[in-house]
Amino acid sequence: MMDEVLIDNLVVYSAIIYYAFLSIVFLFRAYERDKQELMLAPIFSLLLVPFVALWTLNLLNGSDIGRLITGFPIIIYLVYDLWYRLITKKKPQHHPDRWPVGLIVYLILLQFASIALNWYGFLVSQLTGRMLVISYFVMLGCFGFYQNRYNKRKKASKN
């Protein structure tokens, strides 16, 4: 089977790409670039391929249970993302007055998958775990930037 170190490195690289995509999505939202965000959705969904393949290789290699447990939530999130954003073809509503259950589940899965990926990084090494935590906080910073710009626009429109 495939070398465990290679699988771990590919999972970490895929996680960094995942965080980069989410950061870009939040920046597009901050600058109200809905068309560009929607163009990224199918590409983002392609992340399912490496995560499923690498999780399967971890399973076939007999990797420790920690790698299997921490690698699985990202698959669940990406499947849900594929369904929520592409298959249902719903126009995203980022700040509804009343949050639908689907959006709440989406955000919970996003956070759970991200935190699990960070733990996967720590199973590999302290350095990769820290790299993924930094990537996670960069993504959260982009989300905060988006929220800040949205709140400013909302406040300006009320005046």
What's a quick, concise take on this entry?
This protein is mainly α.
Spell out the blueprint of helices and strands.
Elements: H1 4-30, H2 34-45, H3 48-61, H4 65-87, H5 101-124, H6 126-158
Helix pairs in contact: 1-2, 1-3, 1-5, 1-6, 2-4, 3-4, 4-5, 5-6
Please tag this protein with its features.
159 residues; single chain; mainly alpha; 6 helices
Overview of the structural elements:
- Helices cover 84% and strands 0% of the residues.
- α1 packs antiparallel against α2.
- The longest helix has 33 residues.
- By secondary structure, the protein is mostly helical.
- The mean pLDDT is 91.
- The protein contains six helices and no strands.
What oligomeric arrangement do these chains adopt?
single chain
Order of helices and strands: HHHHHH
Q: What sort of overall outline do the alpha carbons produce when their principal axes are compared?
A: elongated
**Quantity of strands, as a count:** 0
Question: What ranges have pLDDT less than 50 throughout 5 or more consecutive residues?
Answer: none
Number of helices: 6
Backbone CA Rg: 17 Å
Q: How would you state the average pLDDT, rounded?
A: 91
Structural class by secondary-structure content: mainly alpha
Helix content: over 70%
Q: Distance between the terminal alpha carbons, to the nearest Å?
A: 63 Å
